[in-house]
Write a structure and sequence with these properties.
By secondary structure, the protein is of the alpha+beta class. The protein folds into two domains: about 130 residues, Alpha-Beta Plaits (2-Layer Sandwich), CATH 3.30.70.940; about 50 residues, Roll (SH3 type barrels), CATH 2.30.30. It is about 30% helix and about 35% strand. The chain has four helices and 14 strands. The strands form four sheets. It has a five-stranded antiparallel β-sheet, with no helix packed on it. The chain has a four-stranded antiparallel β-sheet with strand order 2-5-1-6, covered by helices on one side.
């Protein structure tokens, strides 16, 4: 074989080796970048915190969807030892609809879900990357747990058996009395008692303002 041909073959082999080596390095870099963040330390866990309740922010109206999706992720990703419970805090309320009191279940904190968990890089990743979750409530990427006193208040609201009364009137609003001896009278709301479902209305009787206590369903906002 002529010397010139040997030189060309050697050069071609060197180029092939360079191309192959470059390709391997590029592939390795891509693999490293594709790894989930919890494969490396992110500093999102607080080892001293242990199991606590955390608040997760969601898109408004997607709270129940987030709860369902996160529970599925806990199951499929085997996170039972780190994520224990997911709740959407709600309370029973009595609201006026078409002149009648109707019992409804209302979200206490729209746009938020409570998660009982131990925060590690892996559990943080599972929760944070659940569809419609926008982040943890905390400082930067570090979740801040709910204090014991705060959770007691939330638990009390969730566990309340008797519905809370709600009405779309405020002190100073003008209302019409719908029923009772003062039906069709107009008055001004003086006070609202959500717990008892009562309002006090100032009604002008003989040119004097007289306070009358009425049920929510006895008044209608003008």
């Amino acid at each position: 074989m002529p010397k010139s041909t040997k030189k060309i073959n050697k050069a071609a082999k060197k180029n092939d080796q360079k191309i192959q080596t470059g390709s391997d390095q590029e592939e390795l870099q891509i693999d490293d970048q594709s790894k989930p963040s919890f494969f490396t330390s992110t500093g999102k866990q607080d080892p001293s915190a242990g199991r606590r309740w955390y608040v997760v922010h969601t898109y408004s109206g997607y709270e129940n969807a987030v709860k369902k999706a996160l529970e599925q992720r806990i199951e499929t990703m085997g996170m039972h030892d780190f994520i224990f419970n997911v709740i959407v805090p709600t309370e029973k309320v009595m609201v006026m609809k078409k002149g009648k009191l109707v019992e409804e279940e209302k979200r206490i904190f729209p746009g938020y879900v409570l998660v009982d968990m131990t925060v590690t890089d892996a559990s943080w990743y599972v929760v944070r990357n659940t569809p419609n979750v926008t982040g943890f409530v905390g400082s930067g990427t570090v979740p801040v747990p709910v204090s014991a006193d705060e959770f007691k208040i939330i638990k009390r609201q969730i566990g309340q058996q008797e519905p809370v009364f709600k009405i779309d009137v405020n002190v100073g609003d003008t209302v019409t009395i719908r029923s009772g001896p003062f039906a069709r009278y107009q008055g001004v709301i003086n006070s609202v008692d959500d717990e008892k479902g009562k309002v006090k209305v100032l009604v002008s009787i003989f040119n004097r303002e007289t306070p009358i206590e009425l049920d929510f369903d006895q008044v209608q906002k003008k």
